[in-house]
Here is the input.
Amino acid sequence: MEMHYKYVNEDTDRVNLYESTILSIEKDDNRHEIKFIVDWTEGDPYVIVKCEKCSNLIINLSHNNRYEKKWIGTLEITGFSYIKKKDVYIVQFDFEHILSGYIRLECHNFIFLTPSKPINIGGNDNLIEEYGTISIE
Here is the structure.
């Protein structure tokens, strides 16, 4: 699928990821890049969230006991947040359903590539808490 629209850093506020699902995560160690392939709830098959010059990837997920243990679960996004610290962004996906927790990383740029214009506006959910695990001051 061809991606026609590109939203960089704060421009990603125009794109809604709520209740979309992360289908896969691709990591390129040579380029220090991580791509999240996201099943987009806005009618198109998927969007790509690309994070460039990444470091300090933290995956903190657990099974939510409200659901039966036999379910494996999906990474349904319930929040997307970022904070700019000097020249680096801290980016975080939040999850609150079968799998609860977050995926957080540091990067110099994050980009949303979409096949069409978004129907709903997203925004920074401002859900990042300071845990002392982020090395940027």
In short: Residues 2 and 95 are 28 Å apart (CA to CA). DSSP finds no helices and nine strands in the chain.
